[in-house]
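Re: that backbone. Tokens:
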């Protein structure tokens, strides 16, 4: 029944199906539309949000002389679109997580399957799954919680606003 509706009646590239009540609640408060059907234990989630955010601009903190002049924005979906546009590789994997115990935030683990060391990937996934933080205010805060060197006084951040730096580090 749901497959028929997805194939014949919904014309959106951002549709998913879930039967998880917490996931449905989170998607609803994130502004997405939920379609519930009689006698069906799953829900259809459609992204119908209006994504009017600031345009893609040059990074103000990381100037580039030769590189591209675009930077990531505050909008996760737009950032993922930038990555997918730049990395045309069928092995690019994007895994979404919901983190934060008091204030929920979306986190996406992006990697290229076959390039990343499987042990490193397993380790990162375990760290994300075991995160116990009230909120992920910024990527810097999240990075500190994921870093295993808890007593390091020197910043070792690889955070960036620039998609070309992300791609180069792959």
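Recovered sequence:
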């Amino acid at each position: 029944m749901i497959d028929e509706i997805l194939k014949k009646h919904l014309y959106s590239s951002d549709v998913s199906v879930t039967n998880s009540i917490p996931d449905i609640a989170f998607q609803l408060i994130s502004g997405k539309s939920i379609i519930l059907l009689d006698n069906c234990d799953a829900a259809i989630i459609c992204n119908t949000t209006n994504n009017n955010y600031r345009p893609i601009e040059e990074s103000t903190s990381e100037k580039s002389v030769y590189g591209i002049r675009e930077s990531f924005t505050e909008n996760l979906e737009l950032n993922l679109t930038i990555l997918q546009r730049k990395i045309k590789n069928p092995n690019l994997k994007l895994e979404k997580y919901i983190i934060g115990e008091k204030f929920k935030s979306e986190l996406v683990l992006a990697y290229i399957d076959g390039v990343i060391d499987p042990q490193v990937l397993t380790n990162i996934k375990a760290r994300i799954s075991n995160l116990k933080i009230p909120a992920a205010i910024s990527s810097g805060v999240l990075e500190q919680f994921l870093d295993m060197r808890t007593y390091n006084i020197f910043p070792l951040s690889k955070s960036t606003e620039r998609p070309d730096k992300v791609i180069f580090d792959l």
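The chain has a mean pLDDT of 75. The longest helix spans residues 118-129.
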